[in-house]
TrEMBL record, chain A:
Membrane topology qualifier: Multi-pass membrane protein
Keywords assigned by UniProt, alphabetized: ATP synthesis, Cell membrane, CF(0), Hydrogen ion transport, Ion transport, Lipid-binding, Membrane, Transmembrane, Transmembrane helix, Transport
Signal peptide residues on this chain, from the entry's feature table: none
Cellular component GO terms, alphabetical: plasma membrane; proton-transporting ATP synthase complex; proton-transporting two-sector ATPase complex, proton-transporting domain
Name of the featured protein: ATP synthase subunit c
Domain V-ATPase proteolipid subunit C-like, chain residue ranges per copy: 7-67
Major subcellular site: membrane
Function: Key component of the F(0) channel; it plays a direct role in translocation across the membrane. A homomeric c-ring of between 10-14 subunits forms the central stalk rotor element with the F(1) delta and epsilon subunits.
Organism lineage string: Bacteria, Pseudomonadati, Bacteroidota, Flavobacteriia, Flavobacteriales
PROSITE patterns recorded: ATPASE_C
Location of this chain's protein in the cell: Cell membrane; Membrane
Amino acid sequence: MTITGIAAIGAGIAVIGAGMGIGKIGESAMNAMARQPEIQGKLQTSALILAAFVEAVALFGVVASLIV
Amino acid sequence: MDLITPGLGLVFWSIITFLFLLIVLKKFAWKPILGAIDERENGIKNALEAADKARLEMENLKADNERILNEARAEREAMLKDAREIKNKMVSDAKEEAQEQATKMITQAQEAIENEKRSAMAELKNHVASLSIEIAEKVVREELSNKGRQLELVESMLGDAKLN
Amino acid sequence: MTLNTLRAVLFLVFSLAIANPGFAVQENDSEDNGFNAKEMIMHHVKDAHEFHIVEWNNKPISIPLPIILYTDNGLVTFMSSEFHHDDSGTQIVEKNGDRFVKYHEKIYQLNAGVDTLTFDEEDHPTNAVLPLDFSITRNVFMMWVTMLLLFIIFITSARKYKKANKFVPSGIASFMEPLVIFIRDEVAIPMIGENKYRKFMPFLLSVFFFIWINNIFGLIPVLNGANVSGNIAFTLSLALFTFFITMFSGNKNYWKHIFWMPGVPVPMKIFLAPIEIIGMFVKPFSLTIRLFANITAGHIIILSLMSLIFIFKSVFIAPVSVGFSLFILIIEIVVTAIQAYIFTVLSALYIGSATAEEDNH
């Protein structure tokens, strides 16, 4: 396996982590929205921002795989 | 690797383009749009406030009217009460006066009657007295004209005196 | 195809395509089929010196764009059509005594007396130099198209407000106003605060619509992957704007939090300062990478799915391929807006943290 392949596997692992993280955020956001539909807009914004933060970490992994 | 190396030329043009975009849009788009939105929102806010104020004024006016009405009603009530009192007082006053007058008149009448009675009595007495004197004179004259009689009289009188 | 197999294939394609753009297709890529998916995808995703529209009878139809180079002898300008669509470094263009070739969308200045490029093992040219390239490339061109579109949309909208009844927006203004109000009420005011948001509204609005329109243009196939917002130079530039605005609007409180964190013991202060300083630079870096990687990944996935038809050389794979790329394309349409929104929100957040007062952090 070439170095590119190894990098790709690493990026895949990073993506799994981010996927789980974003999944968690989505789950909690849905729960919170179901409990308090009146602040849905606020929750959505926060969920998106948090997802963006988590996603950034995964994207660093993807970029690392692009570098090698 | 190429994909994630930012090219100097594109960075340069991006910055120039965005700066230009920012300046032009700020001057010709964002300022008027945001200004108009702000103005409109302020307008709506002011209109709402004015409506609120008007409603409040309305309420105040209504309350004022109510108050004035109540006051008028109370005044009327008071006036009526006063009038009734005055009436009662007048009636009772009049009654009293009449009573007084009547009493006075009665007393006067009684007094007059008494006076009349007294004067009538006095007159009667005088009359009786003079009549008696006349009678007595006549009797005496008659009596005295007869000597025996005179004596008899004196006798009776003395007897009376004794008895007394 | 049952739902489960569909899911399995979808998962496979996703995980492979997201992990590494080239990886998914590399294994299937045989030399003899004449189609190199990786090369095609990279060609689409990267910048180019001409606006290639379509290949017709083996002749490319394209719009030539001006090339502006800064060499040791000063500025050199010529149209990209002088390369005659050559991208392999064989067509030599001579200007002011300098000779240029284009190889893999890079323009090299050949050394005197050399006709062919040679590279060392790390892909550095041995007999040519790279002049500074300020060309109006495909991305720059698309950026200007976007800019013009934004001017048309928003200056027309602004005119609508000036007309008679400014209380009722009409036409395009009534479509744009909710978006403007959205940025103001959902992004600027909560992130920056009621008192200070006004100053930053132009930047936030410009950045949001610029990114959004560029993202949408990137998805239009005829424009042939003018991948502006998926280019790291572009996202870096925008992130630099956020970075400098944050720097220059940062108040005393913000700098104190970076260099001498209040409310913690002194060893902790010393420990935290480098972290905060690194964080200061990581923020724009993550902005850069997030937008770049999201948009580029979207393009790569769509193109990879399309490449499957040519890799398998089968018509039967076409419906699957087209179906999947349609699905991804629809997701990407949402992503265009979300990424523009996230870039704007995070910019606002960073600016907000720099301008926050002492008591509300």
